[in-house]
Amino acid sequence: VTACGSGSGGSGGGDSITMGFSQVGAESGWRTANTKSVQDSAKNAGVTLKFSDAQQKQENQIKAIRSYIQQKVDVIAFSPVVESGWDTVLKEAKDAKIPVILTDRAVDSKDTSLYKTFLGSDFVEEGKKAGQWLVEEYKDAKDPVKIVELQGTTGSAPANDRKSGFQEVIGADAKFQIIASQTGDFTRAKGKEVMEAFLKSNPDIDVLYAHNDDMGLGAIEAIEGAGKAPGKDIKIITVDAVKDGMQALADGKINFIVECSPLLGPQLMDLAKKVVKGEQVQARVVTEETTFTQDQAKQVLSTRQY
Ligand code: GYE
């Protein structure tokens, strides 16, 4: 592929395109599955992929995007680590006539002409589903339900939205009390560390809501280390439904998982080809996903792809 395809109406050299993709990092099982999906789908779709890992740092993503602009790729796709602070670099891409696709996470830019589409989950909905399970589970409880929350990366769309969606649902009943809430940066190590601190300062935690499986899995180690039974002494709700999470759910250590699909690659490649050709695409493409109880996890575990 030559560098002449600028996204302004076809490169004239067949329909092979080059995509610059700036990934958030490798912080979780979800992310690993997402990276594989993007790489495999690029190969299958005949898209030349330039891939970079930002190690959860916005400055690295901005550098990567600038380098893709310089290399005159046909399309830039990225999963913004945090929501704010993208206007300048996205304007640079727009001025260079390189279309941008947001995948997985959103930006808060007011000017929506800075990107062509946003492909990914509805994180507010995910937070609501987590809250709905909790409300149902404790519908007969009279005493306060003491909840600790492990938030995702501070300022990221999934952390903001999973928090607000959950809060919206449980906020209707004052018995649900979030007694501690802190970031675990979506990693297992941080999830464990923060849960250890939660356990030290709060002897009577009823529920843990973790914004992803990995933090929940780290927290399970902390809970067991404190001599308590995860899933029983402390009920656990997580988001993602990666294989390790589903295993813990089937084993009774997690109580409920809200699915968030990382398999965005095929749709991303489709959208990329369309925007490079100058075709109109939907401004928002929402991923379809479900939820899992312990029994459901047992049934689907063996066929789980990631
Ligand atoms: O839930 C978490 C990952 O942005 C949806 O990022 C993604 C989140 C996912 O680190 O595990």
From TrEMBL:
<dbReference type="InterPro" id="IPR025997">
    <property type="entry name" value="SBP_2_dom"/>
</dbReference>
<comment type="similarity">
    <text>Belongs to the bacterial solute-binding protein 2 family.</text>
</comment>
<feature type="domain" description="Periplasmic binding protein">
    <location>
        <begin position="21"/>
        <end position="280"/>
    </location>
</feature>
<dbReference type="Pfam" id="PF13407">
    <property type="entry name" value="Peripla_BP_4"/>
</dbReference>
<keyword id="KW-0732">Signal</keyword>
<protein>
    <submittedName>
        <fullName>ABC transporter substrate-binding protein</fullName>
    </submittedName>
</protein>
<dbReference type="InterPro" id="IPR028082">
    <property type="entry name" value="Peripla_BP_I"/>
</dbReference>
